[in-house]
Amino acid sequence: MARPAQPSARALTALSLLATEGTLTEAAARLGVTRSALSHRIAELEARFGVALVRKVGRRLALTEDGERLLAGMGDARERIEAAVQPFQRDRGQIRLSTVSTFASHWLIPRVAEFQARHPRIEVAIFTTTRAVDLGKEDMDCAIRHGRGLWKGLASTLLFRETLMPIASPEVAHRLRSKAMSDWRGVPLIRARSRFMDWSKWQSHDRTVSPRAAKWLTVETRAQALDAALAGAGVALMDMAYIPTHVADGRLRTLAERPLQLQTGYYFVHAPNARSLHLLALLRDWAVDAARPFLATGRDRSAACQKLGSRKGTNGENGRFLLSASCAGIRGKG
Question: What does the alpha-carbon distance between residue 106 and residue 95 come to, in Å, rounded to a whole number?
Fold first, then answer.
């Protein structure tokens, strides 16, 4: 006598996850399938056993008494199934990326929709931290790091070099234009504790900005410094990569002819033996393409930003305002 066909493992997995998550959407997301596919797997079980296994309770789904009995009969197999689901989903299409919050908020996240449109089956999980995660030991696939690109045991690809550009709201730029270039009294310089040496680097190249004449507004992060500049609280130093939209919208003015280019930059990094290298290559190649406009020289990057930000006028009238002539031609020395 032929042995009856057993229910498929994928159908039992679907039922187990549905019991845990309570909705088709959440269970399907964990399994990495569509709601329709998950529903079909549940229907497969119900047809095989000839009983209803799921019932609706408000906006959620719950197991019927028969469904509960089925999962109870599975014993610890249910826990083993659920434990296997997350790694399975990660192997199939999730990339976990670590970076600093300012880069995530002001460069990566505004562009990640382009990657999603190009690769809709790949899920990207972005985590922010100020420390360099251990890609060999932690549950992280890759990172975008700030530095010189030399991290032992990691493959690194340059996205773009870092720059510094003084920026201010149109109102603050107008106040500066009405002052003598060497007179900074009453115009706060905004500095972030996380980037405390940025103004020193700028002042070493532009002597018109005197530390002794400066009034400081100190915040915690560069993202807060950008917010403060947008609010008209003073002049901040910012990477050109973070400001094109604000310049184009007329909310910020760049205050120098060109940015100060540093030796440090932003790099896409991963372990050479990372899992799902083919997925990481897709994300890396997209990031390189997205960063290409910012990989230019300081002069080219400034020109690109000014093109975005320029409006009808010049020298501060819906365009840029030159802080000092001595800013022309500067280059970072490291």
Answer: 20
